[in-house]
Design goal:
This protein has 243 residues and is an alpha+beta fold. It has eight helices and ten strands.
Length: 243
């Protein structure tokens, strides 16, 4: 690895920031997922800095999701986080296939259940009103990416329970019944996964997920049509908000 030089001139970026940028560029240009970086001693010598400064630069790369440090083994390059844009008309398949990625959706559960408090509130219906519950898992390039729980008013979308079996739920609703949905709210939080989600996403239970609670409305009457709770792998996802 070419170390380049770091500037110590007044007004220059802190040395650890310079080193972080140089390492980041080298990772993007020359490294593959799973490759190991040289040891911290070697890197510190190449940059002409002490190990404390070098370690701070590597810590910045870890925080940014470029590498992970494995005790006793070294520092390894991670798969780049998948950028997933959230906007009023976000569509899972189109959003990711536009990035050249392969996507797949599978239905895990489907049925009719009574609406509990949170679901009823967001769909603006009474508690115990029947709703359609669908749980799906989405894969990107063959790897689990997110799990989604969908809730729709049964009275207006009974056809979804009867006929939806695969692919994009929103595309199905639009093509089958000529109803187009629009997202009006997304609440994002980082939480630890439930045991079943961790299993489905093939991730450690102590690694946070990104949970997005979204409300979609029928654009013709602005009535809530879907409440969805999506759990993304936090270590593999970067969410961008498009307003």
């Amino acid at each position: 690895m070419d170390s380049g030089t770091v500037s110590r001139e007044p007004g220059s970026l802190p040395i650890y920031c310079q080193v972080k940028k140089k390492l980041e560029q080298k990772i993007l240009n020359s490294y593959q997922t799973g490759d190991s970086l040289p040891s911290e001693n070697v890197l510190a010598e190449q940059f002409g800095i002490n190990r404390h400064t070098l370690r701070r630069a590597v810590d910045e790369l870890i925080e940014a999701g470029f590498v992970e440090r494995v005790h006793g083994r070294g520092t390894f390059v991670l798969e780049p986080a998948i950028n997933y844009a959230i906007g009023s008309n976000t569509r899972f398949t189109a959003t990711l296939e536009n990035q050249g990625r392969n996507t797949e959706s599978k239905i895990l559960k489907k049925g009719k259940i009574p609406a509990e408090g949170g679901v009823a509130k967001r769909l603006q219906i009474k508690v115990e009103t029947p709703v359609i519950f669908i749980e799906t898992i989405r894969f990107v390039d063959g790897l689990p990416f997110c799990v989604i729980s969908h809730f729709l008013p049964f009275k207006s979308y009974e056809f979804v329970l009867d006929f939806y079996n695969k692919g994009s739920l929103h595309n199905f609703i639009q093509e089958y019944c000529h109803i187009k949905l629009r997202r009006i709210e997304s609440l994002i939080s980082a939480v630890l996964p439930q045991m079943e989600d961790a299993r489905l996403l093939n991730m450690p239970k102590k690694t946070p997920i990104l949970r997005v609670k979204s409300i979609n409305v029928n654009i013709d009457n602005e009535k809530p049509a879907e409440y969805a709770v999506t759990r993304f792998r936090g270590d593999a996802t970067q969410l961008s908000i498009n307003l």
